[in-house]
């Protein structure tokens, strides 16, 4: 699977180039290889190249991946939607849950962690495009979200996440990413842990980087076309 090594090197070179242009450190960027639907061999091929951060879209898939590549020092990220009854599949296995899109889910994660003596880092998913097909809370409700979860002691709000529209219009993409950055900058003043911006996929990660992304969710540009065609986060 030499192509995975070549793709990883190409993406990382592009990240370094953009960071250099905007006077950012490439070391500040977490590249999450979205391995959704690919066989374990693809994960192991990227791992053999030194890559350690991987993302899955479904809680059950992340649970299964955890077993498939057990013993590897992999940092797993859940980037797809999470229902309360699936929390048990990911908490304790996941470095970061990117897709917390309701107060109820945040509180459910906190309650689960409290009962099992765990803690969990999360991101708040924000719908910056306004598309009805996108998950996430509206930008206007971030304040309410933080207010209603401020008493949670077993989750850590580490930043914000968004999905931009599937478009080639740079102006639209920039607006979505800039909105998320602005929200982060506003609320980080009172919540210093709110540092990360998870935004940017295979088709738009260069623009996301220019707008301040700290985490990129990239699948196709690393692993190639997926075995099945679905709407995805990577």
The percent range for strand residues is 15-25%
Report the structural category: alpha/beta
CATH superfamily: Alanine racemase
- In which order are the strands of the major sheet placed? 7-6-5-4-3-2-1-8
Task: Please characterize this protein's 3D structure.
- This protein has nine helices and eight strands.
- The chain has 234 residues and is of the alpha/beta class.
- The protein has a single domain (2-223), classed as Alanine racemase (TIM Barrel), CATH 3.20.20.10.
- Strands 7-6-5-4-3-2-1-8 form an eight-stranded parallel sheet.
- The two termini are 20 Å apart.
- The model has no long low-confidence stretch (mean pLDDT 94).
Q: Could you list some keywords that capture this structure?
A:
234 residues; alpha/beta; TIM Barrel; eight-stranded parallel sheet; 9 helices; 16% strand; globular
Short description:
This protein is α/β, with parallel strands linked by helices and 234 residues long. 40% of the residues lie in helices and 16% in strands. It has one domain: TIM Barrel (Alpha-Beta Barrel).
